Amino acid sequence: MDRRLALALVLTAAVVFGIPLLFPNSGPVRTSVETTVGDSLAISQPATTAAVAEGSSGAAPAAVTAAADPDARQGGDSVAPPVMAETTTVVSSLSEYTFTNRGAVPLSATLDRYISLREGSDSQKVELARPGSPLMGYSLVVPGDTIALGEVNFRVERGAEEGGAPAPLLYSADVDGVQVTIAYTFRPDSYMVAVRGSVADAPARTFLMVDLPSGLESYESDVSDDQNHLGYVYKPTTDKTGDVLFRKLDPGEQVLQSRALSWVAMKNKYFVMALFAPDERPFDELQVTGGARTEKAATVAHGRVITALGENGDFGFTIYAGPQEWRRMLAMGHDFQDVNPYGGWFRAMVQPFAQIVMRMLLGLKDTTMLNYGWVLVIFGIAVRLVMWPLNQKAMRAQLKMQRIQPELQAVQKRFKDDPQKQQQEVMRVYKEHGMSPFSSLGGCLPMMIPMPILFALFWVFQNTIEFRGVPFLWLTDISTYDPYYIMPILTGITSFVMSWIGLRGSPPNPQAKMFAYVMPITFAVLFARLAAGLHIYYAVQNVAAIPQQWLLARERAKVRPAQPVVQSPPSTPANQRRRKG
Questions:
Q1: Which CATH architecture has domain 34-340?
Q2: Rounded CA separation 381/543 (Å)
Q3: Rounded distance, CA 83 to CA 33, Å?
Q4: Cβ-count burial of 95 within 10 angstroms (0-12 exposed, 13-18 middle, 19+ buried)?
Q5: pLDDT at 216 over 70
Q6: Quick one: which of 144, 285, 281, 136 has its CA closest to 206?
Q7: pLDDT digit string, tens, across residues 267-278
Q8: Mind giving me the DSSP string for 403-426?
């Protein structure tokens, strides 16, 4: 090799590797400030070399995070120190919120009263945010441009506590020469946070875009079922609630709701993060885009709410980040309790009964202060006691129908060639016994009344957080299926006993006998993985009905069928000749 070439390579290597060693780059200084608002009201001092708090998106933009010399001068004026990335923790009686000044948004909301039910989670508290993903994001849409506030580090100030609520937070920043402020106010004993903001000198037709969570972390034992409930829900001001479920969205598919909206929400099975618009200024639009699928289940989508700024550049809404507790959501108004509606396709039929059932179960819980398992036992017995007179009437109507059946069959056989006369004779038989053709129907209807309650309970156990994680006897959670399948077996056995007693004293009917014996076993197998609480209610209902069935079976055994008394056909010459012959 040429000596000059070799010397050039050595000198080049010395320059490349030697300069970083002689002049190391320490990188930008980052500061983390953590404020804890609550009983202690303590605030830690900034640390000059602390790492950026977890959840921050990294170094701040160069315009606001470049290291500045406090002694530097420009035109005789001092340069303001940069605003660094920091997080603030707000502790309330129900939740713990983590905010970041990077975009002035909440990073997460941790719910103190709810723990994860996932296997191996070790009593981890439910947190309404996925790791590395904030709960919200802001952007400003001005004529001809969109300004993403997520890259702006805001200054944060803490207000004074009032009424036992955590101290409010006020964020402010100069964004492209425009002053933007966003304030968060917390309510005591509530999952709600009021948001108020303004954009100084905002041009006409400026809009605020709020990015919703792309999903919520699952903390349920059945993760796939929880993921099936993922979706965005919205409430038009003049219509009932609608939803856009993740599992129904193709990747990249877009859904647009461009009408006045009272609220929008991101929900899974038991938890929800919702934004409520002021009554006088509803949201203008909801945009939803399907996310990429990295697994079979659809777990990611992107939702965005758009609202116009007021005449003074102001905006406001209320955040609800918490559990889908029925009473809390009902108190919010605007049909918020329908964020996870009961009934699915049968919503119009099931929803009224579900509302009644929820009020009764919650009322029983408040009155008795018992475990929800015992509440279901009491509820099942109470329903049977209330239905006792109606069931008694229905069963006696069936006994009367059973007694006159031989007479009706004789009439039908006697006048099979004369339909008009047959109908007259059938009506005569009904009238003699104080009955009508609708008596059998009237006897069946009271027995069908518990069915809507059973259907309502099925949906209640699907969506109601009040039953989530509630243990009872050997069960660890009455909202999920019995892992030992004891409850489905008990339901099948009690149903079989009910059928066996119900057939005692009845006329022989092979089809009815097969149906009565086979159906309990079939239902026990088909519904084995339904919520254990539903089986508790149904099994108790069966047990409570057995005494009434037994009494009616004994009464049925004493009933003697009415002897067929049929009037002879009218005398005609043809009949007279037939009798003489």
A1: Distorted Sandwich (2.70)
A2: 9
A3: 11
A4: buried
A5: yes
A6: 144
A7: 999 999 999 999
A8: HHHHHHHHHHHHTTT-HHHHHHHH
Q: List, for residues 32-83, the tens digit of each pLDDT value.
A: 333 333 333 233 333 332 333 333 333 333 323 233 333 333 344 444 566 7
Q: Please check whether residue 406 is in contact with residue 563, taking contact to mean a CB–CB distance below 8 angstroms.
A: yes
Lowest model confidence (mean pLDDT) among 57-66, 411-420, 448-457: 57-66
3-state secondary structure of 129: coil
At a CB cut-off of 8 Å and minimum separation 6, what does 297 contact? 224, 227, 228, 247
Token couple for 61 = 């933009």
Distance CA 464, CA 365 (A): 14
- Model confidence pLDDT, tens digit, residues 97-145: 999 999 999 999 999 999 999 887 777 999 998 988 899 999 999 888 8
CA separation for the pair 102, 82 (Å, rounded): 13
Question: pTM for this structure?
Answer: 0.75
Q: Is 527 exposed, middle or buried (0-12, 13-18, 19+ CB in 10 A)?
A: middle
Q: Which amino acid is at 18?
A: G
| 244/256 Cα distance (integer angstroms) | 10
Rounded Cα–Cα distance for residues 357 and 543 (Å): 20
- pLDDT beyond 80 at 11: no
Q: Where are the domains of the chain?
A: 34-340, 356-558
Per the listing, tokens 């590395």 go with 132
How far out from the chain centre does Cα 211 lie?
21
Q: What element of type H or E holds 475?
A: none
Q: What would the pLDDT profile of 323-381 be if each residue is shown by its tens digit?
A: 999 999 999 999 999 998 877 677 777 788 888 888 999 999 999 999 999 999 999 99
Output the CA–CA distances (angstroms, integers) from residue 208 to 60, 199, 546, in the order listed: 22, 10, 63
